[in-house]
């Protein structure tokens, strides 16, 4: 019997929308907790913030276990440092849920000197694995398992799709309305399609508004001004995740044009496959692993434009003309109905300290070329515990003060963040968010990114010209 411990991840209900990372951690709760999926596992939960505040609790809780699953976002380095400081012997399974994003990059940098045989990394795609190996060569000596828990629990039964008006073609966007998801190009596609067949095509957008340029009221005005109609674009705020499949079934085409630096999987593509909805997607990141060739749109990447991984941003543009041609011709490419990425056996192998279940696959030529063209600076290497330990210790003090506004010095820490931040406008957004939420670590891109300022960790990337 393998004794396993993990934090029971509980998203802040004040967040405007639960992102894929939040959903994945909740799914891990269910897989390893209430559903008790494997007779060889003895699973218990712990309180992650308390581990960092109370070392006696940490020792009592972690000493008996064989494996800790890091179900906490990009904070695995705290577990590694605790294990080292307390002299314990459990294995650690951590994950990396985004690509070029400072929080997870800092985690990997700080974990390096503490890695032991039996530790494992869960990557969400072959693209994620290849990118991680490129950025962190030390991972070549470690097990990297491919696993994402989307639909790994019982997949929901599907109701019949809503009947749509005859002749109307509905395009859909689910998720953040943002520039890095290339949402403006979906509006461009809607306008292009209606230019030749006025009134036939509609766009439904559902999700939180992330970029000012994607404001639904402004988009509605743009569409009305260019088409003379006000019924072609509609918007809904974020919905509960259990309604995603009903929304998918209302669509003729789900559009996934993201060229985001954060992209590693696109879990919504797995959900589209389960829903049986036609998909058109950018040939970026892991999309080629989940979709047939007919569903992929070529990307024109922007070369020679440096960007910091503190921010989400689009890295290129998709081929709108190709998308329009597919839709006009009535072709309906479908996502894979049963991808291998969510096989529970991969998670169990990682917990047991066994080799990966899924064999290595050849990366699609487009993401492979993207990785080869990537250049960066500002990824410091913490090669020894002596280098990493003081950094983690300082970050832990900050974490304990900021998380859930728990520290008596919470306000003074916020003022200090303002002073030291390399990106003051982003820090101001964090401060505003802290006032209206619990200000805890479940808000990915909040505390984790701000602590990169404390560590002086500001990686910068760009793509070399092809």
Describe the protein in words.
By secondary structure, the protein is of the alpha/beta class. The protein has 2 domains: 2-152 and 344-460, no CATH class; 172-329, 3-Layer(aba) Sandwich (Rossmann fold). 39% of the residues lie in helices and 15% in strands. It has 18 helices and 17 strands. The protein has helices at 20-34, 48-53, 55-62, 76-86, 102-111, 126-135, 183-196, 216-227, 244-248, 267-275, 287-290, 320-328, 344-352, 365-373, 385-402, 410-420, 424-436, 447-455; strands at residues 2-7, 41-46, 67-69, 91-96, 120-123, 143-146, 169-174, 201-206, 233-236, 253-256, 278-282, 296-297, 299-301, 307-308, 316-318, 374-377, 460-463. Strands 2-1-3-4-5-6 form a 6-stranded parallel sheet, sandwiched between helices. Helix 16 packs antiparallel against helix 17 (424-436). The radius of gyration is 22 Å and the shape is globular. It starts with a strand and ends with a strand. Residues 163-291 form the Glycosyl transferase family domain. GO terms for molecular function: glycosyltransferase activity. This is Glycosyl transferase family 1 domain-containing protein. InterPro entries: Glyco_trans_1. It comes from Ramlibacter tataouinensis.
Provide tags for this entry.
single chain, 466 residues, alpha/beta, Rossmann fold, six-stranded parallel beta sheet, 18 helices, 39% helix, globular, Glycosyl transferase family 1 domain-containing protein, Glyco_trans_1, glycosyltransferase activity
Briefly characterize the structure:
GO terms for molecular function: glycosyltransferase activity. With 466 residues, the protein is an alpha/beta fold.
């Amino acid at each position: 019997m393998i004794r396993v411990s993990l934090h029971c991840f509980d998203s802040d209900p004040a967040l405007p929308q639960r992102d894929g990372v939040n959903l994945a951690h909740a799914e891990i709760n269910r897989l390893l907790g209430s559903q008790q999926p494997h007779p060889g596992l003895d699973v218990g939960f712990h309180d992650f913030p308390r581990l960092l505040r109370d070392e006696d609790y940490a020792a009592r809780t972690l000493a008996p276990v064989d494996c800790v699953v890091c179900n906490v976002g990009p904070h695995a380095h705290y577990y590694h440092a605790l294990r080292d400081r307390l002299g314990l012997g459990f294995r650690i399974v951590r994950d990396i849920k985004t690509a070029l994003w400072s929080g997870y990059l800092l985690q990997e940098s700080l974990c390096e000197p503490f890695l032991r045989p039996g530790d494992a990394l869960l990557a969400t795609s072959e693209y994620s694995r290849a990118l991680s190996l490129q950025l962190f060569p030390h991972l070549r000596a470690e097990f990297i398992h491919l696993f994402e828990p989307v639909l790994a629990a019982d997949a929901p039964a599907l109701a019949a799709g809503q009947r749509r008006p005859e002749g109307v073609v509905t395009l859909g966007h689910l998720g953040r309305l943002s520039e890095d998801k290339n949402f403006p190009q979906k509006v461009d596609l809607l306008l292009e399609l209606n230019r030749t067949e006025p009134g036939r095509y509609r766009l439904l957008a559902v999700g939180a508004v992330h970029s000012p340029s994607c404001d639904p009221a402004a988009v509605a005005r743009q569409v009305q001004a260019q088409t003379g109609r006000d019924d072609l674009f509609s918007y809904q705020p974020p919905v509960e995740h259990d309604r995603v499949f009903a929304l998918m079934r209302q669509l003729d085409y789900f559009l996934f044009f993201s060229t985001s630096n954060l992209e590693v999987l696109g879990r919504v593509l797995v959900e589209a496959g389960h829903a049986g909805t036609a998909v058109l997607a950018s040939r970026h990141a892991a999309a080629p692993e989940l979709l047939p060739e007919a569903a992929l749109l070529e990307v024109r990447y922007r070369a020679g434009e440096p960007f910091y991984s503190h921010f989400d941003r689009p890295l290129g543009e998709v081929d709108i003309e190709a998308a329009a041609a597919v839709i006009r011709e009535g072709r309906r490419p479908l996502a894979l109905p049963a991808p291998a990425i969510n096989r529970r056996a991969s998670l169990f192998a990682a917990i047991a300290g066994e080799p990966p279940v899924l064999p290595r696959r050849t990366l699609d030529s487009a993401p492979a070329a993207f990785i080869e063209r990537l250049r960066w600076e500002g990824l410091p290497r913490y090669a020894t515990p002596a280098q990493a330990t003081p950094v983690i210790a300082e970050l832990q003090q900050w974490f304990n003060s900021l998380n859930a506004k728990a520290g008596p010095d919470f306000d003074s820490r916020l003022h200090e963040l303002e002073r030291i931040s390399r990106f003051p406008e982003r820090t101001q957004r964090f401060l505003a968010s802290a006032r209206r939420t619990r200000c805890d670590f479940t808000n990915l891109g909040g505390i984790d990114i701000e602590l990169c300022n404390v560590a002086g960790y500001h990686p910068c990337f760009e793509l070399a010209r092809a």
